[in-house]
Every structure is written in structure tokens, then in C-alpha cells.
Design a protein that fits this description.
The complex is a heterodimer of chains A (775) and B (225). Chain A is of the alpha+beta class. Chain A is built from 26 helices and 28 strands. Chain A is globular and about 85 Å long. In chain B, 23% of the residues lie in helices and 25% in strands. Chain B is built from five helices and eleven strands; from the N terminus they run E-H-E-E-H-E-H-E-E-E-E-H-E-E-E-H. In chain B, strand 3, helix 2 and strand 4 form a beta-alpha-beta unit.
């Protein structure tokens, strides 16, 4: 282990030779006719012409590298930007946002002087090409986003979607992705508190790997990505720069996979070093505490190009950088490659000249290499030199903020009405107790509803000692303050089936479910993040799905009174002409005044009253039952009623705060039947329920705005009164206890059998039963 | 005066924070120790916490054993200072030859995080006096290289000498020889445990409070000494 000095220690490889003659600013002005590979870098001819127009000459190779990555779909949001404005335009009045959309991550005031920052981001394309490193570096990237806001990262979650569970390629991709998340997140010491696992043929070839990170800070600790103060020094610290991931943003994340195979793209995936990231986290937090950071930016997609342009643009200043002072792992790299490299575990800070030595000293303590590579100027230009020759001279805002904005054509697909007309009414419904019992077991064994322990047991959920709830509960709950019990709840949800049937309603259902999942723990929902996974924006049908989804989310957040704090768009999730189902994944953050009052989903007390809150209608379009038992997807998704969601959430928070409930569980995928089974398994207890209406509808309908609750003994009347006052329908359906789940007049099934069926699926598909497994 | 228990932070230590909290909850004073300083600050006992010291590169614990703090810790441990290595800390103690055997990759080849039961076998040590022999505890296992291995002669010797600290009692989760979850040196002051008692000190944030006894045991031992 070499003990880094924090300064250049001689072991670092520098590009000692100027190498081949570089394309300088002067050279570019003198050779306007030279051909440049803009198309290979993902830029269109009009975009290339616009760059030349902005600069008054052709770009140098290094400038072209900067614009190609900064104007990529991934970094510029050029197809989505005009739609995403709705999140700000329709934002509900709120005073909880300390930093909103446009920063590395949104920052939310949770009270007692604390703030929480959280964000979810996709790493879909790299995770298909190289599942292990692709998923690992997805965790690393989102953690640095959170760190860059001045926060200590305290938890992660992952929303994962794969092709058919029994497909050969899924057996390559899923274990790799899970292994990568496990490797990186565990080594970083961040508890993994939940997420999603779903399977559908539409994700074969386009798995969705969406990683969420949450961090905690005091209000005063907020850091922004702005290079201010001419003369201040620009420090690059963390890992050395290598040739990995060059052009990842433009090449991988901004283009569909063609038929040519993934081999050509393999070098674009980065390789992660979680140990370095752990050192970087602790180092940054010590630097923040010492007050040595004027501005900071993480290096993610587009590496040094992105960090320098965004810092300079954010500070409305200029910056001068000596690219040849960037410490390299591969001395053959030239300026364009250094700018585009996506080497992991790097940060860039702006530091006053007086603080540079102390800054480097703290980096040395943590064995994090750190190098001064430039300084802030008052020129308003981003200038970069390579062995004293000027190779970049641009206005930074033109790369960071003034990228192209497209109004892509959107068209409702011709088949949308036929899809809606093909409802589940024609599907044969199980009749009689034995058929209902079989259907329930079939749903519990389906990969998308089965116990995800094969995945989640590979993640550390206990580290840091503040995890109050994690998988399989509806939301992860983390304690923030040990004295007061202040904490937060986090959940992510998405449902591609609902969104295919109706992207507007489907997105609102995803929002409503995440909102409800936070609420059933007793938390008050506060803010939203999102990761919008779609096919190619160049396909008008995809663009229609996208615009509907964004409109649905913005309208939904306004109705629920919780703002969108930031998010991420992932386009081009398609192979050839086949796009994935539109899959917006919505994350909701809620606050617990005291996590000691948080509710889990498992039944707790024998004899306790079970109640169903909300209204059940015959709503099976896009349901788990239609898919698993009939392979059917058609009709209308369940109706959205955001006022009912709000009323339900209010009741749950009040009831939890007053100690009226012992447990609460969201009713969604698979309906009340699956919810009851999950509550029994989580609590290792049985239940007996009597259903009023048609047993099939009661058990498998996916009507929204519902929850199953166990009422605290002796508090039944109080709770019923609370529901009545809030206008939330509440029906006693039975009681907890015994060793079987019994639906009166229909069937009984032992909790042991539920567990056996529920647990068996993933180990059978992805690996031998866990050693030491007990029946 | 409460006992002062040091918790070493190596680069890549993760559960240092949790070990400090467990010591505090047991009534002791936690003293952070830095890997790069050959100074134990006069502590009454030391916990080497879980994590991935030095990224677990080369071999788990193999680099940490050469840290400056270890140059003080090893002779102190040989002289009787109570030392508990948890997970990665256990690996460090084996690499430092303060405990016999080695920890290798789990039999299932995957990282395992699970609530498990262990049975305390040796209750006469500095770290287990608050338990009774045969007592079962619910604690947390979370490790990728947790399979305890030693040659048969060493295992026999450990059994005969009462040096098996604890065994897995709800199935063997990682392929450890003879279900061994933890061992202790002959003198009873240096213990290694693969599961995490510091994650089982409060039912709010762990599966039980059963792990607190390891920390209250060492505090009692220090007061008695």
C-alpha cells in the first residue's frame, strides 16, 4: 500500500511528453477546413455547426470532446428539458426545499436543523454491457452526487428490472448486477435499505439499474458546485485518471444498442474502486468540517469536462486548467481523452490559496491523491493548456447550460385504444376456495412477487446502526438523530405495465404507491425524486409516453403537495425498434418525528384487529394476476385518486404518532391477497379474514389508495373515529393469530407453506439454496 | 470511572461508529484510535471493528496487521489487554497471529447478511462473562469471507482448550469448520467473532439487544481487574 502524500509523490505517471502535435486554439483558427469526427462522438451536423458558430471557428479536438459529452442526451437533457420544466412550473408551494432542481441533488429541510439530500440515477446501459462494474459504478456515481452537496451519504436503494427471470441472459445480468451493488455498497459502508426487483421480457437486453442515495447534512453545511473567487485554486482529488469509460455519456447512455453486439462498446464501461470512494467520502467530510471548500463537484459522466464547465458556469467565472497536470494512470492519454475519461472516485474542489496546504494535508491523511490543476479567473472563459499550449478556450456556459434543446415529435400510438379496450374482463377467474388458494400461491411464487432475499441478503442493511426498517418492509426507515428519534422514510416504485396502458395515470400510480409506502410506516411524505427510463426519444411513440409521464408526475406532485427535487432521465433503453415499457421510477422521501413510532409491515399480536383502509373496486387491468395467471396486459390501470391517497397518508401518520397501530402494509401488486400473505410472513403469524364482496375481486384487485393495518389492542374505536373524520373508508376484515392465513369460506394456507413457496423461486433460478437454510 | 475501550479505524473500517455506540450503550467510554498512530491512549480494551480495511485488497486483514497501531496492540494483547475483533477485525487478528486459523470465502461464494442465532460456548472469557455457556443469541451476520478454517489439530486443540467462543446455531451460513462463529486465545483476552454483536444492541435498529453482553462483559472485566 503506497502511502500517498497528497502532493505529487513522483510515483504518479504524468504525460511527460507533449506527444503528437496537439490541436491548439491557434491551429483550429488556422485550419478551418479540417475534418473532425463529430458524428462518431455522437454530435449531429447542425450541432457541430452551432459549436463552430459559438466559437467563431471550428472547435479544437479537446473542445469537441467537451461539447460532445456535455451536449450528449445524458448530460444535456436535450430531448427532455422542455418537458421537465413542468416540475418547476407546477411545483406546489413549499418551504422545505433548500436546493432544488439543477443541483447535483435536491436538498430538503427535515427539521431540527437537519436537511436530507437524495437522488436516483440510472446506470442501465453500462449494467447490460458489464453487469458487475456497470452496477457497482452506478452506486459510486450517485454517492458522489450526494457527497458533493456537502452531505454524509447514509443509505442506498436500488430499483432493478430485468428480462424474463428464466432467460439465460438474465442469469448473466442479474447476478452480476447484484454482485456489483453488493461489492461496492457494502465496501462503502452504506446500508442498502430497500428498492425494487421486477422482471419483464421488455427489459431483456435493456435491464434497468436505478441507484438511489440519501445523505444527511446540517443546514449550514450545504455546498454548491460553483467556482467563485478569481485566484482560488482548482484541486482534482481521488483516483488517477485512466482510459476507462471514455465517451461513456455520449456513446453508451445516449444511443440505443444496435444489432452489432456490445463488444464494440465494452471499453466505455468504467471500473470501480469502492475503497477509494470510502476514503474520498471521509476525506471530503473532514474537508467540509474544516471549512476548506469554496465549491465542489463530483466527477461522473463526462469527467473533467463536466466538472470544469459546470463549476465555471455555476460560479459565473472563468477557469484556467493545465490538463497536463492531471495525474494519470496511463501516460499516453492526450487532452481530449483526459477530458472525456469517466475514471471513478474523483472530485474537484475550489479552494482559497491560503487553504491549499491544509486541504492537501487532509487528503494525505486519508491517502487520497490530490493535485492543483488550475485556478479560477475573472475572464468568463474556460481555458485549458497542454504543455503551455492553449487547447481549450470556450465560454463555459455554452457547454454546461446552453446545449441544444429539442422539441421532438410525439405521437400517441395507433394501438393505444385497442390496448385499452382489451381489458381483463374476458380472462377466466378462479372460482372456489381451492382455485383462489392456487392463484394466491402462483402469485407469491412469481419472480416479481417472490421473496427477494436472494438479492437483498447480499447487501449490508445494518451498517451505521441507524436502519429502523429495510426490505421487506414497504419503505426503508433511517434514524437521523439518536437523541430525538428524528428520521426519514424512503421508497421507490414504478410499474411499466400500468405505464404502458396509460403513461399519465401509470406514472401517478407509481408516485402514489411510493407516497403510500412511505406513509404506511407512519412518515409524512415530503419530497420526490425520479428516474425516467424510456426508449428512444427519436421515436414519436416513446416521446408521447415520456411527455405523458412527465405531465402525470408534475400534476400528481402538485396535487399531493410534494415537490420534485431532482431526477434523471434515461433514454435509448431499447434494442433495435423494441423499446422498454415506459418505466418512470419515483422515489418519495418522508419524515418521522420519532422513528421509535415507525410501523413495520409484519403482523405482531395474536388476536389484534385487522382493517382494510380504502375502497376496493374491480380493477385488474395491468395487474399481477392478469400477467402471472394469464400472460395478459391490457385494459385500464386502476383509477388514480390522489385526494384519497392524501387522506389515507394523513390517517396513517396521525395513527402512528398516537400509537393506534401495530403494523401497516401497502396494498398494491397482487392486491389484498398478496398483502395479507406478506404481512403474515413478515410477522411470522397467521390471520383469519372474512371478505364482504366477491372473494376474487377482494383478494386480487389492485385498486389504489388502500392499506392493510393491524390496530393496537384497545385502540380500535379511536382509530375508527380517526378514519371516519378523515373520510377514509375502514373495514374490519379479521384478526391476526394462529399459524395459517384463512379466508373464511374460501381457503386456508399455512404461513410455513406461504414462506416455502415465496422463498423458493429466486434460489431455484439463480443459485443453490443458501447454505444453512432452514426449512 | 468508566472503562475506556478503544475502537481502531483503519482506512476502510465501516462499523467503527457502531462499535463505539455499543460501548457507550454498555456504559463504557469509546475512544477512537487511528490506524496510523502507534498509540493506544491507555485504553482498557480494544475493539477492531468490521469493514473492509484497505479495501480487503491482497487478503482480508493482511495489510491492516502492518498498521502502526498494531505495533502497540500486538504486544499489549499478548500481555493481557482485552481485544475483540469483529468480522474484518477477526480477520486482522488471525493475520496478526493473535488468533489461530483463517477466514476464507463463504461456501456459497456470496456475501451474506442475515439475522442468525449463535450459541455461546465459552463464557469464561473477558468478552463473554455476562453470558452463560450454551446461551443462544440473535445477532447479525454480514460477510463475504466468513468461513473459519484451521487444520484439524488446531481445531481439536481449540475444542479441548475451551477456545471456541461461539458456534452458529441456526445452520452453518458460510461453511465454517465445526460451525465456529468465534474463537478466543488461550488466555481468554483476545477474541474474534465473525457475526456482529454491535448490530444487536438495540431492538430498534437490530434484531435484538443480545449482543450488548460482549461489551458489558469487557467493562465488568476491566472494573474487576
Amino acid at each position: 500500500m503506497s502511502a500517498g502524500t497528497g502532493l505529487e509523490d513522483g510515483a504518479v505517471q504524468h504525460a511527460a511528453q507533449p506527444g503528437a502535435a496537439q490541436d491548439t486554439v491557434a491551429g483550429a483558427a488556422a485550419t478551418p477546413e479540417r475534418d473532425q469526427p463529430y458524428a462518431a462522438l455522437g454530435l449531429t451536423a447542425p450541432e457541430y455547426r452551432r459549436i463552430s458558430g459559438l466559437l467563431g471557428r471550428r472547435p479544437t479536438d479537446a473542445e469537441l470532446a467537451i461539447y460532445s459529452v456535455m451536449w450528449s442526451e445524458h448530460c444535456s437533457y436535450k430531448s427532455s428539458r422542455r418537458h421537465l420544466r413542468q416540475f418547476a412550473e407546477k411545483a406546489p408551494p413549499t418551504d422545505v426545499l433548500l436546493a432544488g432542481i439543477g443541483h447535483n441533488a435536491g436538498v430538503v429541510d427535515i427539521g431540527q436543523g437537519y436537511a436530507v439530500t437524495f437522488k436516483i440515477e440510472s446506470h442501465n446501459h453500462p449494467s447490460y454491457v458489464e453487469p458487475f462494474q456497470g452496477a457497482a459504478t452506478g452506486v459510486g456515481g450517485i454517492v458522489r452526487d450526494i457527497l458533493a452537496m456537502g452531505a454524509r451519504p447514509v443509505a442506498v436503494m436500488d430499483a432493478l428490472r430485468f428480462g424474463p427471470a428464466d432467460a439465460a441472459d438474465t442469469r448473466r445480468v442479474l447476478p452480476g448486477v447484484v454482485g456489483g451493488i453488493s461489492f461496492y455498497g457494502n465496501c462503502l459502508g452504506l446500508p442498502n435499505i430497500g428498492g425494487e426487483l421486477a422482471f419483464d421480457p421488455c427489459y431483456a437486453g435493456n435491464p434497468l439499474v436505478n441507484a438511489l442515495c440519501m445523505g444527511v447534512l446540517r443546514h449550514d453545511d450545504l455546498k454548491l458546485a460553483a467556482a467563485t473567487g478569481p485566484g482560488n485554486q482548482v484541486v482534482l482529488f481521488g483516483s488517477r485518471t485512466g482510459p476507462d469509460g471514455i465517451g461513456g455519456a455520449s456513446v453508451l447512455a445516449s444511443a440505443s444498442f444496435g444489432g452489432g453486439g456490445e463488444g464494440a462498446k465494452r471499453p466505455s464501461v468504467q471500473v470501480g474502486d469502492p475503497f477509494m470512494e470510502k476514503l474520498l467520502v471521509e476525506c471530503c467530510l473532514e474537508l467540509y468540517a474544516a471549512g476548506l471548500v469554496v465549491g465542489i463537484q463530483d466527477l461522473g459522466a463526462a469527467g473533467v469536462a463536466c466538472a470544469t464547465t459546470e463549476l465555471a458556469a455555476g460560479g459565473r467565472s472563468g477557469m484556467r486548467v493545465a490538463l497536463d497536470s492531471v495525474p494519470l494512470r496511463d501516460p499516453s492519454l492526450g487532452p481530449a481523452e483526459i477530458l472525456m475519461s469517466e475514471s471513478q472516485e474523483r472530485m474537484m474542489a475550489v479552494v482559497t490559496p491560503d487553504d491549499v496546504q491544509r486541504f492537501l494535508g487532509i487528503c494525505a491523511k486519508w491517502e487520497v491523491p490530490a493535485t492543483v490543476i488550475g485556478e479560477v479567473t475573472a475572464t468568463g472563459r474556460l481555458e485549458m493548456t497542454w504543455h503551455d499550449q492553449l487547447v481549450v478556450d470556450i465560454p463555459p456556459g455554452t457547454a454546461a447550460d446552453e446545449g441544444p434543446v429539442y422539441d421532438r415529435p410525439a405521437a400517441r400510438p395507433g394501438g393505444q385504444d385497442a390496448l385499452a379496450a382489451d381489458g381483463p374482463a374476458r380472462l377466466a377467474r378462479p372460482a372456489g376456495g381451492s382455485a383462489l388458494r392456487s392463484a394466491l400461491l402462483q402469485l407469491l411464487a412469481a419472480p416479481e412477487a417472490a421473496d427477494a432475499a436472494w438479492v437483498t441478503e447480499q447487501y449490508d442493511r445494518y451498517v451505521r446502526g441507524d436502519t429502523v426498517l429495510a426490505t421487506p418492509h414497504d419503505a426503508g426507515v433511517v434514524r437521523i438523530d439518536e437523541e430525538t428519534g428524528l428520521g426519514v422514510a424512503l421508497a421507490t416504485d414504478g410499474n411499466g405495465r400500468y405505464c404502458l396502458l396509460d403513461p399519465y395515470a401509470g406514472t401517478q400510480l407509481a408516485l402514489a404507491e411510493a407516497y403510500r409506502n412511505v406513509a404506511v410506516t407512519g412518515a409524512r411524505p415530503l419530497a420526490v425524486t425520479n428516474c425516467l427510463n424510456f426508449g428512444s426519444p427519436e421515436d414519436p411513440v416513446v416521446m408521447w409516453q415520456f411527455t405523458e409521464a412527465v405531465r402525470g408526475l408534475a400534476d400528481g406532485c402538485l396535487a399531493l403537495g410534494i415537490p420534485v427535487t431532482g431526477g434523471n432521465v434515461s433514454f435509448y433503453n431499447q434494442t433495435g425498434a423494441e423499446a422498454i415499457q415506459p418505466t418512470p421510477v419515483v422515489g418519495v422521501l418522508g419524515v418521522h418525528d420519532d422513528v421509535r413510532r415507525a410501523l413495520g409491515s409484519g403482523l405482531r399480536h395474536s388476536g389484534a384487529t385487522l382493517m382494510l383502509l380504502g375502497t376496493t373496486s374491480d380493477e385488474l387491468g395491468g395487474s399481477l394476476w392478469a400477467r402471472v395467471c394469464h400472460g395478459h396486459l391490457g385494459g385500464r390501470p386502476p383509477a388514480v385518486d390522489l385526494a384519497a391517497e392524501q387522506a389515507l397518508a394523513g390517517v396513517l401518520a396521525d395513527a402512528a404518532g398516537q400509537g393506534l397501530l401495530a403494523a401497516a402494509h401497502d396494498v398494491s401488486d397482487g392486491g389484498l391477497g398478496v398483502a395479507l400473505a406478506e404481512a403474515c410472513m413478515a410477522g411470522q403469524a397467521g390471520a383469519t379474514v372474512t371478505l364482504a364482496g366477491d372473494a376474487f375481486t377482494e383478494l386480487f384487485s389492485e385498486s389504489a389508495a388502500r392499506a392493510l393495518v393491524e390496530v393496537a389492542a384497545g385502540r380500535e374505536a379511536e382509530f375508527a373515529g380517526l378514519c371516519a373524520r378523515a373520510g377514509v373508508p375502514a373495514a374490519v376484515i379479521g384478526s391476526a393469530g394462529g399459524e395459517e392465513l384463512t379466508v373464511t369460506g374460501a381457503f386456508s394456507v399455512s404461513v410455513a407453506e406461504l414462506r416455502r413457496v415465496h422463498r423458493g423461486t429466486l434460489p431455484a433460478l439463480f443459485g443453490p439454496a443458501r447454505s444453512g437454510e432452514q426449512a | 470511572m468508566t472503562a475506556r475501550i478503544g475502537v481502531v479505524t483503519f482506512p476502510g473500517s465501516l462499523d467503527d461508529h457502531d462499535a463505539c455506540r455499543a460501548i457507550r450503550l454498555a456504559g463504557g467510554t469509546a475512544v477512537p484510535l487511528w490506524h496510523g498512530e502507534a498509540d493506544l491512549q491507555g485504553v482498557d480494551g480494544v475493539v477492531l471493528p468490521g469493514g473492509f480495511s484497505y479495501g480487503d485488497y491482497l487478503r482480508c486483514g493482511a495489510i491492516a496487521r502492518f498498521a502502526p497501531v498494531m505495533s502497540e496492540l500486538v504486544p499489549a494483547a499478548r500481555a493481557g489487554l482485552p481485544v475483540l475483533g469483529i468480522c474484518n477485525g477477526f480477520q486482522v487478528l488471525c493475520e496478526a497471529h493473535l488468533l489461530p486459523g483463517a477466514l476464507t470465502r463463504n461456501a456459497g461464494l456470496r456475501f451474506v447478511n442475515r439475522d442468525i442465532r449463535i450459541r455461546v460456548e465459552a463464557s469464561g472469557t473477558r468478552w463473554t462473562s455476562q453470558y452463560t455457556a450454551g446461551q443462544e443469541l440473535t445477532v447479525v451476520l454480514k460477510s463475504g469471507e466468513g468461513a473459519y478454517l484451521a487444520d484439524e489439530a488446531t481445531l481439536d486443540q481449540l475444542e479441548a482448550g475451551g477456545q471456541v467462543l461461539a458456534r452458529y446455531a441456526s445452520g452453518n451460513p458460510n461453511g465454517s469448520a465445526r460451525d465456529i462463529a468465534g474463537v478466543v486465545n488461550e488466555a481468554g483476552n483476545v477474541a474474534g467473532l465473525m457475526p456482529h454483536p454491535e448490530h444487536a444492541v438495540d431492538p430498534l435498529t437490530g434484531p435484538s439487544a443480545d449482543g450488548l453482553g460482549f461489551f458489558s462483559s469487557v467493562l465488568a472485566a476491566v472494573v474487576a481487574a
